[in-house]
Amino acid sequence: MATATGARPAVGVLALQGAVREHVAMLESAGARAVPVRRPSELSHVDGLVLPGGESTTMSRLLETFELLEPLRERIAGGLPAFGSCAGMILLARQVLDGRPDQQQLGGLDVVVRRNAFGRQVDSFEADLPFAGLPGGPLHAVFIRAPWVEKAGDGVEVLATVPDPDDPPDGPRADRIVAVRQGAVVATAFHPEITRDERVHRLFVELVRKA
Ligand code: GLN
User: What does the entry list as the binding residues for L-glutamine (predicted)?
Assistant: First the structure.
């Protein structure tokens, strides 16, 4: 019974690579009907789309192979609500630093991201972050070879930053931006889908309902 504006919106999960199952489960319990998306016909039937974590260079290549790159760019430019986690954030960014020269961007977010930004010693780490607009206190965030947002345009709302306890307050990692929103496009450098906390997915499903 789900329709474009129904109580359970159809939210796609780009299913070429990466943490697909985790997002599907989270979306279902956050009130959406989750739909794996591998081809343009599937993309055309969803009311919103999650771009999972994984490897942005691989996903970029697979987007071309599966002929999804242009249809996806068009839908995002047309206002499709999108939520990218980690590699998904990289794909949605206007520009990527430390990417592969042939890696493709989907656009949607007026940000410059730096890939694998947190460096080797902290390839993976966890932190509790205040997250703007989420009721219920800080969010437990898991970072895995995560990017950060190096520059955000005027229309971009910063939702969370990560302080690094080992850094001086003005150190290179201090207060880096790790969650943003621009209109109906949300992105996190971390992976809400691998925790039990559904709040970010609920926030996104709410955005899809309103769109
Ligand atoms: N470092 C990966 C990339 O460049 C992202 C890692 C992740 O999604 N966990 O795409």
Answer: 54-56, 115, 144-145
How much is the CA Rg of the chain, to the nearest whole Å?
A: 16
> Domain residue spans in the chain?
4-210
5 confidence band (pLDDT: 50, 70, 90): very low
How far CA 107 is from CA of 90, 111, 189, in Å, comes to 9, 9, 16
Distance 5 CA to ligand 1 centre (A): 32
Task: State pLDDT tens for residues 72-95.
Answer: 999 999 999 999 999 999 999 999
CA–centroid distance, 6 to ligand 1, in Å, is 33
Residues of the chain with pLDDT > 90: what percent? 85
Superfamily of domain 4-210: Class I glutamine amidotransferase (GATase) domain (3.40.50.880)
| Ligand 1 atom closest to 54 (CA) | 8
Q: Ligand 1: which of 116, 122, 148, 178 to mutate, most ligand atoms within 8 Å of CB?
A: 116
Residue 75 CB partners (closer than 8 Å, separation 6+): 43, 44, 49
Q: Is 120 annotated as a binding residue?
A: no
Residue 5 sits at φ, ψ, to 5 deg, of -115, 15
Whole-structure pTM value: 0.93
